Amino acid sequence: MTMQPNGFDGVLICDGVEVPYQRLAPDGTTDDLLAQAFMLALAGSGFAPDEIDGLGVASFTLAPDHAIDLAWRLGIAPPWCMDDCHGGASALNLLQHAARAIQCGDANVIVLVSGDRFEPADFKQLVDHYNLTTRTWLRPLESGGPNALFAMLTQQHAQRYGLSRADYGALCIAQREWAARNPQAVYRAPLTLEAYLEAPLVADPLGRFDCVPVVSGANAVVLARADLARARPVRHAVAIRALRCGYNFDHQRGDGLQTALAQLAPALWRDAGTTPGEMDLVSVYDDYPVMALVQLADLGFAPDHDLRALIARIASGALPVNTSGGQLSAGQAGAAGGMHGLVEAIAQLRGAAGERQVPNARRALVSGYGMVEYRYGMCANATVLEACEVQP
Known about the structure:
This protein is of the alpha/beta class and 392 residues long. It folds into 2 domains: 11-121 and 215-236, Thiolase/Chalcone synthase (Peroxisomal Thiolase, Chain A, domain 1, 3-Layer(aba) Sandwich); 126-210 and 238-386, Peroxisomal Thiolase, Chain A, domain 1, CATH 3.40.47. Helix content is 37%, strand content 21%. It has helices at residues 30-45, 67-74, 90-103, 120-128, 132-138, 147-161, 165-179, 193-198, 226-230, 261-272, 289-298, 307-316, 326-330, 337-349, and strands spanning 11-22, 54-58, 80-84, 109-116, 201-203, 206-207, 216-225, 236-247, 281-283, 363-372, 377-389. It has a 9-stranded mixed beta sheet, with helices on both faces. Helix 7 (165-179) runs parallel beside helix 12 (307-316). Mean pLDDT is 93; it is low at 1-5.
């Protein structure tokens, strides 16, 4: 596991945007979706294209093109350019590198974009060739993707903590209630426990509502040098209080019920000067309900290991988790999945979340989790964000 030095002073997040997710692939290309996200981000942040001197990109279906190809199509020539391929950990990985680049003077204003456009064949190609291990060991079995892996992990998790399918369902239902207040969520219809339990099984014990729905879409985040951010017409920005990235290969030999977040959490909270109990909202990477619970526990939101009590807090709204509806209801637009929760946290801290706005939201925790190998995800990261007024 690796960790970076503390401190992100002098950098502010000016905006986070989302190109509405769609169940069916829209006309055009992945390039088009990323370009839309880029332009939406500029419109929201007040920066002009010729002020952008950094671009970071995460996408599965942009290939064979890269960030530099997209920069050319956008009409910019950024001296700082980065591709990232860490899946659900990509957004925070990009955020870390972009913030450091601004601090070091390598760039002043950086736009991070992520997203994918999926036809059915595109998704099959992705899950069959996600990495060499997947291609070598899982594709011959025609496992159909990560559902079987996370079904086994859910079985182990349920046995260890004494949880039932209804307990995992409570998390899905709570997120669907948030999604009902999010006009951009793909799945907004009310979800009952009865409907959850009666849904067809995909890989026992995972039912239809436990598996993240694949959609097309894109997200973008704008970071800038603090003095430049304060010169914009935007009143509210977001500060990065702490950010830690972990690559814990040892847990590949374990049971998958703990991520690298467990090792980096103490340093993260120390860097931020705060605690889990002081978070106003949380965005955790939720490709499956079990992984949301694992990350929350690793980050200290269940210090007594009572996951039923944690679920009850989430279900009651006492702990706002994945207030967009999360990927389980808003959808997972490929590599944009890792940025979706970050954009939601930015919206909440800027007071721009509309009907689902968490009152007086000042602090948020965002986590990422990615790169499913033959067994479990190999990297995870988390950031603590804080609302910041840049205009009187």
